[in-house]
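Hi U.,

Before I forget, here's the chain from the pilot set. I'm dumping it here mostly so it's searchable later in email.
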Amino acid sequence: MDIFHSNIDDETLKREKSKARLLRNSQWWKRRKSSGLCHYCGAKFAPAELTMDHIVPISRGGKSSKGNTVPACKTCNNQKKDLLPIEWEERLEALNKKD
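Structure:
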């Protein structure tokens, strides 16, 4: 178990992932991603290409709820990983300073 998962037990993780699967199949989620916009980079994608990202990751105590999930492109979702919003913003700022 890595350090990000140290604050959450396996049963809670399993329960939240199950809730996320149910949420992904809901009409609410289908409407949410129908715009095709990634919450993070703002780029346009086919709705089927967007993934569900937990703003506060499950592994960091976040819940699988409408208020904590956003559509994200696979690139942004993979780069954000288990970062909290402030950590993600700091990482983006650091990357922009390098460019």
